[in-house]
Amino acid sequence: MDKNSNKYIFIYSVAMVVIVALVLTSISVFLQPKQKKNIDLEKKRNILSAIKIEYDKNDVEKVFDEYIIEMFVINTEGERIEGINPLEINLKDQLKDSPENQKWPIYIASMPNGEKSYIFSFYGTGLWGPIWGYVALKEDFNTVTGAYFDHKSETPGLGAEIATENFQMKFTGKTIFNENGEFVSIDVRKGGVGNDIHAVDAISGGTITSTGLKNMLHSCFSAYLKFIEKNKN
User: Fold this and answer.
1) Domain that holds residue 173
2) Which of 50, 54, 84, 190 is deepest in the core (most CB within 10 A)?
3) Is residue 13 part of a domain?
């Protein structure tokens, strides 16, 4: 076949596309288990950070298994869904679905003081991209024992401050129900919060990220609300 002919060039191009596609698919399939393990490890690190448990990067799984005594998935009615690994839940995908079809992970930790913490997952939108995190509640299903937040592309020194320990520590001791037992979530408010146990100071210069975080907390806590109220009562 004439290598300069259009037919040869077309066949060669198609063959190269098929070969490259097969190679890339094979690499993706080969790396998939490793990618999944890395995602699971990152979630485990974040969960441990939310409950303020220290760990060595080489012992994440060991420490996670030591402190996390139970994990499961619920629907928005607060009912358990069996047969699903909570670590495999992608909240970004869940939030695209209708509320009645959404699945939400919960992790229960046995703390060093002998008490339990219930850890809930969160996902939302900041200024430049997604934000996410975990918030742990005491057995009263009201008081925050710890929080961890992270982001994809918030501005360093501004919105990115949600990923700092100094900001996250502000949530410890806050409550999501008022004195009348009504759900109020946790406000992220600009201008100071004083002694308000349902609010934290917003990030200076990070108004949009702070608003995104506030909205994320309210919407995701709302998805867990029926489970929380059933167990709170």
Assistant:
1) 42-232
2) 50
3) no
